[in-house]
What we know:
146 residues
Amino acid sequence: MEPIHDDLPCKADRDNLTIKQQISRKAKIVRKKLILAGCLLSDPLTPLLARLLLVLAIAYAVSPIDLIPDFIPVLGILDDLVLIPAILFLAWKLIPLELISEYNTKLIEDDRVLLNKWKSTGFVLVIGTWIIGLVIAYFFLVRHFV
C-alpha cells in the first residue's frame, strides 16, 4: 500500500509532464510523507526503530547540515533526493499499515492540522540537532585545545 497517493490517476497524464513538473510532484509527495512521519512519531503504536528512522529523516530534511553540501552541483541535491526517501521507505516497512492508513486519511482530509503539528516537531528537531552539534564541538575544542 502506498502511504501517499498520486494526484494524477492516469499514467498517460504523468508521462505528459515536463521534468520540472515531475520533480515538483515528487517533492510534494516527499513533503507529505515527512508531515506523515512527524505525526507517526507521536503515536505510541509506532515501533521504536521506526520512530528513530523517522526522527533521522525529519532531522536530515530540516537540518541545514548535509552529508554532501548543496553547493556541489548535482550531488548536493541528489543526496537529499535519495537519502530521505530511502530512510522513509525503511520506516514505512516497520510501521503497521493500519496506522499509516489512519494518518494518511487524516492528511488527505485536513493537512493543515497535521502540518502545524509537523512544523513544531521539525523546529524541535532542528534546535536539538544544533544543540547536540554545539555540545560535541565544545567538547572537541576543549579536549584538543585546552
